[in-house]
Design goal:
Elements: H1 3-8, E1 34-36, H2 39-50, E2 58-59, H3 62-71, E3 86-88, E4 96-100, E5 106-117, H4 120-128, H5 136-142, E6 147-155, H6 170-179, E7 185-190, H7 196-206, E8 211-216, H8 228-242, E9 248-250, H9 261-274, E10 279-282, H10 297-300, H11 307-310, E11 313-316, E12 320-323, E13 328-331, E14 342-343, H12 347-355, H13 367-378
Parallel strand pairs: 1-4, 7-8, 7-10, 8-9, 10-11
Antiparallel strand pairs: 2-6, 3-6, 4-5, 5-6, 12-13, 12-14
The chain binds zinc ion.
Length: 379
């Protein structure tokens, strides 16, 4: 089969085609008024450029924004879950502006669409289901500039990826899937080190499809999450030792974490569809933080869409554990035994053991992964 034919077997990008907003640096860019982006906006910009946010070609206008907040859909009716907006202090003068990161590096131009005011409380309530500023997503929203600037972007310079060896745009993951002859591919989102429980559910999912994309989020997260470099090393040793190389790709997902729970689960699924995944793993409390969302909210929200609207198929998972009686990994769905028979360690207990240089039980964590974490705690 030719590569083109193999690519055509993959799921279509959201909206039908993969957006590409990369182009040459325009000669007059230095003379344009410059808008400085926050790190989250830079990450959104890069995802707009690569097509990871297809069908979006730029930062959202008011009609898209309002309908996403109220109805989980873009103005044209296509499913969408979170605002992708650029906050500014004041309306720009011209009809085109340059976009820069916080160091002043020019990255893109934006053709000015609308400048509109927005209600932070409303956006917080809709997206995060709370207006409490202890929520990291709400805190960031409340600190934002007061107006949104919409418009199509053209990116001519990209911020170097944090992990160049793991950087793959949607066109590249799609090509890699096609090259391996995969049609059905399951995406796994994570921002934590992978222990046996995650290994188990990725493998259960992989049993039913052709390939697995381990797609850790390496964009901005809360400061108390495990550092991305440590997590990436955990994935590397785990995959090297416990997964067949021809069935798994590890690549970085460049999004910034929003902690929007259910809505972010939808948004993450749509992004992975753009990367070529036909299936997407959704665990309990996906993209949650604290106790702002119910345990199953990130799974239940998928019921608000007809299956064809998302196209990518969610695969829902329970917490899993090693059961001594079953003699295998299991979950409440598959094991009838009591908690006393399960190997369970709280997050606090695991951190305490690793901090003391102790390996957790092999039923909980692969020793290669635990060693990486112990080393990270030591430094
Ligand atoms: Zn059991």
């Amino acid at each position: 089969m030719t590569t083109v034919a193999a690519q055509q077997r993959l799921i279509k990008p959201h909206g039908g085609h993969l957006v590409d907003r990369l182009d040459e640096r325009p000669s007059n860019v230095e003379s344009l008024e410059t808008v400085t982006l926050t790190s989250r906006e830079v990450s959104d910009l890069d995802m707009l450029a690569s097509g990871a946010l297809s069908p979006l070609e730029g930062f959202m206008g008011r009609d898209d924004y309002d309908r996403v907040l109220d109805e989980l859909r873009l103005e044209n009716g296509l499913a969408w879950a979170l605002p992708v907006c650029l906050a500014v202090e004041a309306a720009p003068q011209g009809d085109r502006v340059a976009l820069a990161d916080e160091s002043g590096r020019l990255l893109a131009t934006l053709d000015v669409g609308e400048v509109y005011s927005y209600d932070k409380e409303r956006e917080a309530e809709r997206c995060f289901r709370t207006t409490e500023t202890e929520h990291p997503g709400v805190a960031r929203l409340m600190a934002q500039r007061p107006l949104y600037l919409s418009g199509r972007v053209t990116v001519f310079d990209r911020v170097p990826p944090a992990f160049p060896e793991l950087a793959m745009d949607p066109a590249e993951t799609r090509a890699a899937f096609a090259e391996r002859g995969w049609k059905r591919v399951v995406g796994f989102q994570t921002r934590n080190p992978i222990h046996r429980a995650h290994e188990y559910l990725t493998k259960v999912a992989l049993e039913t499809v052709d390939g697995l994309l381990i797609h850790p989020l390496v964009g901005e997260t809360k400061s108390d999450d495990v550092p991305a470099a440590t997590r990436v090393e955990c994935y590397r040793v785990l995959v090297e030792n416990y997964y067949p190389a021809d069935r798994v790709i590890v690549s970085a997902f460049p999004a910034a974490m929003r902690y929007a729970g259910p809505r972010e689960a939808i948004w993450h699924a749509i992004c992975r569809k753009n990367y070529g995944c036909s299936h997407f793993i959704v665990g309990r409390d996906h993209a949650g933080v604290g106790s702002y969302y119910g345990t199953y909210d990130a799974q239940l929200i998928f019921d608000e869409f007809e299956p064809h609207e998302l196209d990518i198929e969610p695969m829902f998972f329970e917490h899993s554990f090693w059961c001594k009686v079953c003699g295998s990994m299991a979950s409440a769905k598959t094991c009838p035994h009591s908690g006393d028979d399960h190997v369970f360690l709280s997050g606090t207990k695991v951190r305490e053991m690793l901090g003391n240089g102790e390996l957790p039980p092999v039923e909980f964590s692969r020793p290669e992964v635990a060693e990486v974490l112990i080393e990270a705690y030591r430094t």
